[in-house]
Amino acid sequence: MTNRFWRGLALLLVIPGLMFAASCAKKPVVSEPAVTPAVEEEAEAKRLAAEEEARAAERALEEQRLREQARERREREEMAERERFLNENIRFEFDRSRLLAEAKKILRRKARWLRAHPDVSVVVEGHCDERGTNEYNMALGDRRARSAKSFLVDMGIARGRLTTISYGEEKPLDPRHNEEAWAKNRRAHFVID
Amino acid sequence: MLFVTLVACSNRPCHGRVYIDINAPYLRKIPTAIPIFKGMSAGQSHAKLGRMLSGLLAETVEFTGFFKILDRESFLENPQRAGFMQHTINFKNWTDVGAELLIKGGFQCKGDVLEVELRLFDTFSGRLIVGRRYTGRLKDHRRIIYRFCDEVILRLTGHRGIFSTQIAFLSTTTGTKEIYIAGFDGYNPRRFTNTGTITLFPAWSSDGKWLAYTDYRHGKPELFVRHIKEKRGTVVSLEGSSITPAWVPGRFALAASLSYEGNPAIYLLTGNGKITKKLTRHWGIDVAPTWSPDGREFAFVSNRSGSPQIFIKNIEDGNIRRLTYEGNYNTSPQWSPRGNHVAYVGWKNSHLDIYLIGIHANSPIQLTRDAGNNESPTWSPDGTLIAFSSTREGPSRVYVMNANGTDQRRLLLLEGEQTNPSWSPRLTSD
Predict the structure, then answer these.
(1) Structure confidence by residue, pLDDT tens digits, B202-237
(2) Rounded distance, CA B136 to CA B132, Å?
(3) CATH code 3.40.50.10070 region(s) in chain B
(4) CA-CA-CA-CA torsion for B351, B352, B357, B363, nearest 10 degrees?
(5) Within-domain flag for A176
(6) Residue B430 has what pLDDT?
(7) CATH architecture of B166-423
(8) Does a structural domain hold residue A31?
(9) What is the C-alpha to C-alpha distance for residues B190 and A148, in angstroms, rounded to an integer?
(10) What value of ipTM does the predicted structure carry?
(11) What residues of B are in the A interface, CB distance below 8 Å?
């Protein structure tokens, strides 16, 4: 009975010692001043948590950076689409207001953009080249703007979002007096209201 | 104030003979002598004034296209010594230099007060056709000369002249298109609008008190009706384009092309801008109305047959007939004040030119050619002259010609470009 007690006591003291030695063996600082195991564990957990936190923050930062990058890209794309919407004129034949195939293609793109931006209202400007008389060109510009508007309305854009205005031959895009300039000037131009 | 006195026999009906038939398509210009006016009081400055007044009178009567003003160098007598009373004139001196008409003048100037006596003679019969004495301020000398020219034209043609008329037009002098108004002879152009934007299509009401026009001051082409002298008027605020106003003769009403319902069509409006009637109905463009002098018909431009052509609509029976068939671009019709012709702009060989077509006959006469682009014809109220814009000298400017296309000359010189002339009716002065 006494023997068993002493053996047990010895074991009780040795095993944790061994365990302690074993757990400390991997660490570079073996000869730490005596601390109680419970306190050490807590510090370790804190450190790990801090590390994890730092990693998470880094991850979040990276994610945000990516998100921002994507947003910027989207914004750039959006800007480019908007610019395209504004800058891409549709052209007309001389003395005509009917829509050519190319013009319809451009208008379909514009309709897509307008559908994606339901809060945007647009002014469609009709223009003519300098040839012909200014009063007839005013009426012709009116018809050109309206042809473009009708097409967009047929594509499902609310009529109320589109107003038309004719400038006749009063605002040429290209001031020269040749075929190239005239072709550029016979146009419908789109402006965000 | 201008005081006018009849001179000698001229209250007798001595204008039985019509010297000038303004309806004739081609006129022989009457050789006319206008010697320098005689100063009744001596002085160097008076000699200058005499030259200025007689020069102005010569220019003014010559503007009508009815007269050939003879060179003073050929005259046989010294105007300062010769008399200008009928019995003191040696008419042979004038028939010998080829003059058929003679205008003599005398004047005196006391301080600011100018007194001018002017007499028109038939040199062959030695008869006084008309004589007038005017008293006014020196600065009113132009009005005195214009008044006498009015008398001369009335006596010689039996019709009222154009010397009280003005011409409105567009100019880009300030950088934007604004309406300007000058005398019929281009004298004293002054700016009428200050919109700072695009202004177009000035049109005079038939009493000469109102101008209708289109401007973009509210961002779109709207119709404005503005009093010439008082600061009042109306804006017709509609969707689309409200353009090319044309006043109904003798009424405070106008036709204009409006597109608020969709297609540009011709509507009738009151002078206060209320739409009273739709005058044309078609899927195409209807624009640029112009009234016959009796207001029963109007001509307009329509592309209903595929290209812009001129049509005439009768208001009473509603019939529409096509007027122009030659070429595939005929626009800007202007019905002549005497009713028998329409002037318009046609496009041939890549140039715009002014044409004249009888309202029944269908073979047009070309009035301008080989001189840039010629646009916007507008008739003088007596129907003898046409003002128009032309790029013959590069930038667009306003020109005038006789109704048969002769004597094309520039009306005035201003910075920028001038377009869209519009001739006023006779304006009552005083």
Answers:
(1) 999 999 999 999 999 999 999 999 999 998 999 999
(2) 13
(3) 3-157
(4) 10
(5) yes
(6) 41
(7) 6 Propeller (2.120)
(8) no
(9) 40
(10) 0.90
(11) 177, 198, 200-201, 214, 219-221, 239-241, 243-244, 257, 259, 262-264, 285-288, 301, 307-308, 329, 331-332, 345, 347, 350, 352, 375-376, 419-420
